Amino acid sequence: MQGKIIKSLAGFYYVESEGQVYQTRARGNFRKKGQTPYVGDQVDFTAEENSEGYILNIHERKNSLVRPPIVNIDQAVVIMSVKEPDFSANLLDRFLVLLEHKKIIPLIYVSKMDLLADSSSMDTIRTHYQQIGYFFSYEKAELLPLLKDRVTVFMGQTGVGKSTLLNQLAPHLQLKTAAISGSLGRGRHTTRAVSLYNVGGGKVADTPGFSSLDYEITDSESLTAAFPEIKQFSYSCKFRSCTHRHEPDCAVKDALGQGEIWQQRYDNYLQFLSEIENRRETYQKLSKRK
């Protein structure tokens, strides 16, 4: 039989196949191969009546996230709040870089707009991201049609309201939510395990919240590719390995000067590039000591 893993808990894998869910375990040979089944995996499995089944084979994955451990994702709703916690374009761009690198379509959703007395600054930010080509919305009703026939991850900083949004889109889920901590200014972790739920004709995952992330990019070329608007202009740079920082005849810097690239996005690009270079230098120093 074939199916998709929709939940992983305490060593059990729950596989959905033709409308039924089967409780399975992974064969011991997966450990020998260094393989671990993840939520989202398409698998071959056996299932006998009144007994647990076994996963026999894991199909090839098109992409994966380490945290949360989930695979074969079509798109991700990146949830950012305007307050509690405050909106951060820098953090949003970190999510977008990760998703672009993984070939996962990002959908940006901003929550808690009712906490803003004036939305003009957020409207300006929205316009910038829409000009790049990103979906960017404050309206949950606009998200629902986009979930059909897709595997969608809901992700964002802790406390932005991932579980709350999912409960509004699909009240039958009744996912647990938690109040914002006054002393920390962020929500408590309410999601313990990754699960795929049926919402809007597709599969969605509510994932554990986190406040930072590491992306798997180690060079300027890969970072450039993760910024669509910078990538677009980079093809006209004089040097193929242009970092768009100090090189002459840089089409990206020309576009920046003409207002075709948003200064804040470019600044975040430079910051991420610096972080990548610092990590590489640290790794090289540690390697020499060994």
TrEMBL record:
CP-type G domain: residues covered: 62-213
Cofactor: Zn(2+)
One GO BP annotation of this record: ribosomal small subunit biogenesis
One of the record's GO molecular function terms: metal ion binding
UniProt xrefs under InterPro entries: G_CP_dom, NA-bd_OB-fold, P-loop_NTPase, Ribosome_biogen_GTPase_RsgA, RsgA_GTPase_dom, RsgA_N
Positions contributing to GTP binding: 111-114, 156-164
Localization (cell): Cytoplasm
GO CC terms: cytoplasm
Main subcellular location: cytoplasm
Annotated cofactor note: Binds 1 zinc ion per subunit.
Keyword Metal-binding: yes
Keywords tagged on the record: Cytoplasm, GTP-binding, Hydrolase, Metal-binding, Nucleotide-binding, Ribosome biogenesis, RNA-binding, rRNA-binding, Zinc
Residues that, per the record, bind Zn(2+): 237, 242, 244, 250
Gene3D superfamilies, A to Z: Nucleic acid-binding proteins (2.40.50.140), P-loop containing nucleotide triphosphate hydrolases (3.40.50.300), Probable gtpase engc, domain 3 (1.10.40.50)
Chain's role: One of several proteins that assist in the late maturation steps of the functional core of the 30S ribosomal subunit. Helps release RbfA from mature subunits. May play a role in the assembly of ribosomal proteins into the subunit. Circularly permuted GTPase that catalyzes slow GTP hydrolysis, GTPase activity is stimulated by the 30S ribosomal subunit.
Membership in a protein family: Belongs to the TRAFAC class YlqF/YawG GTPase family. RsgA subfamily.
Assembly information from the UniProt record: Monomer. Associates with 30S ribosomal subunit, binds 16S rRNA.
UniProt xrefs under PANTHER family: SMALL RIBOSOMAL SUBUNIT BIOGENESIS GTPASE RSGA, SMALL RIBOSOMAL SUBUNIT BIOGENESIS GTPASE RSGA 1, MITOCHONDRIAL-RELATED
Name the UniProt record assigns to this protein: Small ribosomal subunit biogenesis GTPase RsgA
Species the sequence originates in: Streptococcus chenjunshii
Gene encoding the protein: rsgA
